[in-house]
């Protein structure tokens, strides 16, 4: 059977960051509901940057079943878990310390391997295998949702422009020791993992994103890392942006409905 081409990204724009965050929270709760009804759990990968704060409309929101969430990091900086640069710490501060999610449902890197990134990324891959392998028994894990940000250079997770990791097609988790954005040591989910997710949502807000977003959506042939996120069928890619971020983009908008 021929492989079906990825479907086109769905671009939803909102007048303000608050409206964006409210819609994102609705979208996440719907994704969670479907996943829990089907499999009794909700697997999510989360990025750093502004994203954890953009999830704050989930705090206290009815319908969020925190005990069903299994959280991984789309990328993580290799620093102690309580370090100010840690994405885990950021997510704890902004979200997870404020909601009843069981601590063992948040899957962190093991910083005791900080001197050996091969080992550290292997250990994180094993953590993913424990969660996914028997249950979904696929070549790559199928996250219910992956939440990504957009860097000013078009990077996403820790997949940076021109880096050899852009062509990694085997590993689930890769490491980088020379990130152009500090801190230099990081791990990241790879494209095969990201692109096998059931849903991927990018979140980008503010005029500072306008040029990069225009390139990512209107000139995907330039191959910026964010443009290379194209989930395999039947996965679907969504962009949650505000009007300031999308001001230069020609790509058609879709009105947000649940
Ligand atoms: C990092 C950052 C980075 C960030 C993007 C988007 O690991 O260095 O987390 O990847 O997610 O630059 O940032 P904003 O969401 O803050 O715009």
UniProtKB/TrEMBL annotation:
<dbReference type="InterPro" id="IPR006148">
    <property type="entry name" value="Glc/Gal-6P_isomerase"/>
</dbReference>
<comment type="similarity">
    <text>Belongs to the glucosamine/galactosamine-6-phosphate isomerase family. 6-phosphogluconolactonase subfamily.</text>
</comment>
<dbReference type="Pfam" id="PF01182">
    <property type="entry name" value="Glucosamine_iso"/>
</dbReference>
<keyword id="KW-0378">Hydrolase</keyword>
<dbReference type="InterPro" id="IPR005900">
    <property type="entry name" value="6-phosphogluconolactonase_DevB"/>
</dbReference>
<dbReference type="GO" id="GO:0006098">
    <property type="term" value="P:pentose-phosphate shunt"/>
</dbReference>
<dbReference type="InterPro" id="IPR039104">
    <property type="entry name" value="6PGL"/>
</dbReference>
<protein>
    <recommendedName>
        <fullName>6-phosphogluconolactonase</fullName>
        <ecNumber>3.1.1.31</ecNumber>
    </recommendedName>
</protein>
<comment type="pathway">
    <text>Carbohydrate degradation; pentose phosphate pathway; D-ribulose 5-phosphate from D-glucose 6-phosphate (oxidative stage): step 2/3.</text>
</comment>
<feature type="domain" description="Glucosamine/galactosamine-6-phosphate isomerase">
    <location>
        <begin position="16"/>
        <end position="239"/>
    </location>
</feature>
<comment type="function">
    <text>Hydrolysis of 6-phosphogluconolactone to 6-phosphogluconate.</text>
</comment>
<dbReference type="GO" id="GO:0005975">
    <property type="term" value="P:carbohydrate metabolic process"/>
</dbReference>
<dbReference type="InterPro" id="IPR037171">
    <property type="entry name" value="NagB/RpiA_transferase-like"/>
</dbReference>
<dbReference type="GO" id="GO:0017057">
    <property type="term" value="F:6-phosphogluconolactonase activity"/>
</dbReference>
């Amino acid at each position: 059977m021929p492989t079906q081409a990825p479907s086109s990204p769905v671009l939803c724009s909102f007048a303000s960051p608050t409206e964006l965050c409210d819609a994102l929270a609705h979208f996440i709760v719907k994704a969670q509901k479907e996943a829990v009804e089907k499999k009794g759990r909700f697997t999510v990968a989360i990025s750093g940057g502004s994203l954890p704060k953009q999830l704050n409309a989930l705090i206290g929101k009815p319908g969020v079943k925190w005990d069903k969430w299994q959280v991984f990091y789309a990328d993580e900086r290799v620093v102690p878990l309580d370090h100010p640069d840690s994405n885990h710490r950021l997510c704890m501060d902004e979200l997870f310390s404020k909601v009843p999610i069981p601590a063992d449902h948040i899957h962190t890197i093991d910083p005791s391997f900080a001197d050996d990134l091969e080992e550290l990324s292997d250990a994180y891959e094993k953590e993913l295998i424990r969660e996914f392998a028997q249950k979904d028994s696929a070549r790559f894990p199928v996250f219910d949702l992956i939440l990504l940000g957009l860097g000013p250079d078009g990077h996403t997770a820790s997949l940076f422009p021109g880096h050899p990791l852009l062509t990694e097609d085997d590993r689930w988790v890769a490491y980088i020791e020379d990130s152009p954005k500090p801190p230099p040591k990081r791990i990241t989910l790879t494209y095969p993992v990201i692109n096998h997710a059931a849903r991927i949502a990018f979140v980008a807000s503010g005029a500072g994103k306008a040029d990069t977003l225009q390139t990512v959506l209107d000139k995907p042939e330039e191959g910026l890392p964010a443009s290379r996120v194209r989930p395999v069928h039947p996965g679907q890619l969504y962009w949650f942006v505000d009007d300031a971020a999308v001001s230069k983009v020609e790509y058609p908008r879709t009105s947000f409905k649940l």
